[in-house]
Amino acid sequence: MVAEVLDALKPQRNGRYADGTLGGAGHAATILAASPPTGWLSGCDRDGVAAEAAQKRLAEKFAGRFEIRRGNFSEMADWIPAASCDGVLLDLGMSSPQLDSAERGFSFQQDGPLDMRMDDRQPLTAADLVNDLSAGELAKIFWEFADEHESWRFAKAIVHDRAQRKFETTKQLAELIERLALGRGKKSHPATKVFQALRIAVNDETGSLKRGLAAAVKILKPGGRLAVITFHSLEARIVKEFGREKTRDYTFIGGVDVPELRRPLAPEMKWVGRKAILPGEKELEENPRSRSAQLRILEKI
Ligand SMILES: C[S@@+](CC[C@H](N)C(=O)[O-])C[C@H]1O[C@@H](n2cnc3c(N)ncnc32)[C@H](O)[C@@H]1O
Which atom of ligand 1 lies nearest, measured to the CA of 209? Predict the structure, then answer.
């Protein structure tokens, strides 16, 4: 959704921008290309391979106009000055190189270690969760992070099977779920949700997103815009709730929102556009992975 992001952030020659999810630096490069000669970009990715690739790509054309750090966007406000940015982008989820590299362990379609870490400096892997958590804890992850209706059955089967042999590979786990879901005639692969849930848990994606949104507000200037691209309903829900809270013109006491207990409060942000922007037909044709993308834009007041 490059054109849509450019339209949201409207990069200017003296503008300062932050990209919390550099990935292959596609968006970052277009932001810098649209803000010559002095537009500046601060970018990060928690994936070391991505941060390094982005550094190389941007250095070719935009030397002296960006700073890249390896790290979580939830910590952006620790190194990007407060109220300094005209635009912040969070393009959530996975990059194609992550999904396509079997050894990263994100994909049930390729065999690899059951890893799923975006940042390989962290010790916790998907194998640790699958081999160590109780059935109840696993079921909770599958249900809360992916609405998996078979959460409990899948979790119990995992705990049963791992008593014989620990789970070490993506194939082992995908095959178990396939066996359990046999004949259910689902449109997507039966392990889709289990893999999504484990990935979210391993990388604390919901916690990072909540902290990242708060960090984005801090580093934005008044009038600056936040563009967030989500890929599943849980992410979208977090962004919508954040937007509802920041755009509300009242607060309430006692934790219960009843009209009698409301007090006026200046909102911190306003929505740009009432609905999420979806990828156009051309993008869907060129990049089927964009089918669940939704872009939401908020402006700091
Ligand atoms: C969909 S890709 C971004 C693609 C990028 N916009 C481009 O144009 O190439 C998402 C990237 O965000 C990174 N990422 C996800 N969550 C992150 C977080 N909390 N902090 C930093 N990077 C994160 C992933 O490692 C991945 O490289």
Answer: 19
Q: What are the pLDDT digits (tens) for 209-248?
A: 999 999 999 999 999 999 999 999 999 999 999 999 999 9
Residues in the ligand 1 pocket, defined by CB under 6 Å: 20-21, 23-27, 44-47, 50, 72-74, 91, 93, 95, 118, 208, 212
What does the DSSP 8-state code read for residue 191? T
| Ligand 1 centroid to residue 178 C-alpha, Å | 29
Q: For the whole model, what pTM was predicted?
A: 0.96
Which residue's CA is the closest to the ligand 1 atom numbered 2? 95
* Residue from 5, 21, 10, 7 nearest 235 by CA: 21
Half-sphere exposure of 209 (CA within 13 A, CB side): 26
- At 254, list the tokens: 């006692």
For helices 205-219 and 233-247, angle between their N-to-C axes, nearest 10 degrees? 30
